[in-house]
Amino acid sequence: MEKKPNFSGPRKPGGNNRPGQRGGARGKNDKDPYAINEQIRAREVRLVGDNVEQGIYPIDKARKIAAGMELDLIEISPTAEPPVCRILDYQKFLYQQKKRLKEQKQKATKVVVKEIRFGPQTDDHDYNFKLKHARGFLQEGSKVKAYVFFRGRSILFKEQGEVLLLRFANDLEDLGKVEQMPVLEGKRMIIMITPLKTQPKKDAPKKDAAPKAAPKKETPESETAGEDNNEA
Description:
There is one protein chain. By secondary structure, the chain is α+β, with helices and mostly antiparallel strands. The chain has helices at residues 59-68, 90-107, 124-139, 158-171, 221-231, and strands at residues 35-36, 44-47, 55-58, 72-77, 84-88, 113-118, 143-149, 176-185, 188-195. A 5-stranded mixed β-sheet has the order 1-4-5-2-3. A 4-stranded mixed β-sheet has the order 6-7-9-8, with helices on one face.
């Protein structure tokens, strides 16, 4: 005989939530980064913040305090012993966290990588032109990714390309340091140069200053008067 599965009755969707409470058991909703209210499973928590008397409370009492203030109990540090909670409006708390994260990203330094391309047989004029551009990139704080592109049978000159890149890095040693030595990736041999933390200041062009005129020697009044008397 086939065994019929035993059903204990219909299951309520959403877990054991009470009416008016957000979310279910912790981990059920990936969109909520923090456990709140009934999602908090610790027996006691440490309340912090300006709007409560700080200390360790049983979880039921902490929930009652939050409910009395018509706010949410938010677990902000679940790994602490006991977990640390704040009583705030949850949506407002999430907004403040997103705003703070956005400000931190804006303050973070963005690394810009500028590319310089060479051929395996680059002449001196083209080399110096690209060297000048690379110096400008490093002075402004950007990384320089220089590479030699080998087209067709020019891959036979890969050693020549490596020498070119090492020469390039050596000519930039006052502004940058080699982050990655020349490495062949497909048809390109690449070297990475990162700017030094302290860049030397650019020498301002000196303007030819006009020679200052010698100050006129003032003649004392007594001498002038003497000359007038002699002429008389």
